[in-house]
Amino acid sequence: NGAIDPAATIQVLKQNGLDCYGALIWSKLEWGTKAFDWASFREFVAAAQPAGINVWVILIPPSEGGNSPPFNGNYVRWMQELAKLSLRYPNLRGVNIDDYVSGISKKTFTPAYTCKIYQAKQAINPKLQFAPTVYDPNRSFAEKYGSCIDGAWLWFTNLDTPAGLQSWLQNTRLAVGGRFPIYGGIYGNHTSWHSAPPKPAVLQGGV
């Protein structure tokens, strides 16, 4: 029904020794992924703080519908509301938006609009991190966007082999010239373009 049970979710996290969770706010469920609604997300953040679990919120970009209710495609409003919530619950550490400059999303997330998003949270809580997912954070992106993000999530999309992962991360760091941190990740399950989970060698031998 679009709501996640905060207590049950925290129990699963603790049982698996996890202390950080990326909470997806979405109006629909796909690929077996469960999504939070706004009410259960706020309940989850409140319950996660005494449990010692840090939280990142993941918002849906225009390329995937832009439908993270209740503010949907108003990303400035989203940042304002999340920054206010993070003042009350410091375990709310950051905000991620997927496919940031991929497909039709790049028409929305111009450098100017990105700075509006960034300034919205800076005015309320500069400690809240804004790190969108960027699959090709090259020098041009760094020069245009680097002053208005706190970092970038970067996911390795080759789920068949870890070959090239380390040099890919190193070259990306060089390309952005230290303007912001790069948070590298490997998908732990199937994706929209790869029906099978990644081979263990990808997860074990990458970094």
Attribute tags:
single chain, 207 residues, alpha/beta, 4-stranded parallel sheet, two-stranded parallel sheet, 8 helices, 37% helix
How would you explain this protein's 3D organization?
This protein is an alpha/beta fold. Helix content is 37%, strand content 14%. The longest helix is centred in the middle third of the chain and has 14 residues, at 75-88. It is globular and about 40 Å long.
Shape: globular
What is Rg?
17 Å
| Low-confidence parts | none
Kindly state the percentage of residues in helix: 25-40%
**Helices and strands: which structural class?**
alpha/beta
Distinct helical segment count: 8
Number of separate strands: 6
| Sheet with the most strands, sense and barrel status | 4 strands, parallel
Order of helices and strands: HEHEHEHHEHEHEH
End-to-end separation in angstroms reads 38 Å
Q: What is the mean predicted local confidence, pLDDT?
A: 89
How much of the residues is beta strand, in percent? 5-15%
Strand order of the largest sheet: 1-2-3-4
